[in-house]
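Worked Example 4.2. Consider the chain below.
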Amino acid sequence: MVVFIEMMNSIREFLDTGGQVLTVIAVVIAIMWLFIFERLFFFLSSYYQVRNTMINRWQQRSDRSSWNAEQVKSAYVARITEMLNKNVAIIQTLVVLCPLLGLLGTVTGMIEVFDVMAISGSGNARSMASGVSKATIPTMAGMVGSLSGVFVVTWLQRKTKRRTEQMEDSLLMAH
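Applying the procedure from the previous section yields the following structure tokens:
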């Protein structure tokens, strides 16, 4: 319990150091990872049930070679592809949003530095330090959040393409 409280205090201090923009970045990253975990859950569990159901339906068809059958097969592949791509665009948007919010944090931190310089003069480095940290920490957090999302989105897109091709192959072999 003490470790949890210390961890929460450290997180709160870090968020205070980065300013309000860092809190927004943290919320965006948390939402992005919720969507990522939802996609990972689908890829690792629900996908196989849906795929097997569609393959079984295809195999139960008596007609698998007519024009109508080809359209049904295309619809199955399109449905699987749509399910695999669900929420990936939202994740990509959140990945792009993270560095932009980091840039916003940089701008707000530099405004604070300039305010301190205007009030106390340019020689007081200690009073400018909090503004500089508010300028750099959100930038770093936005980039780290974005990079983590970029790797996952790339993996999801690769897996989607591969599983779509596997679905097409499975339906072709079921002739």
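Residues 2-173 form one domain. The first helix runs from residue 2 to 18. Compare this with Example 4.1 before moving on.
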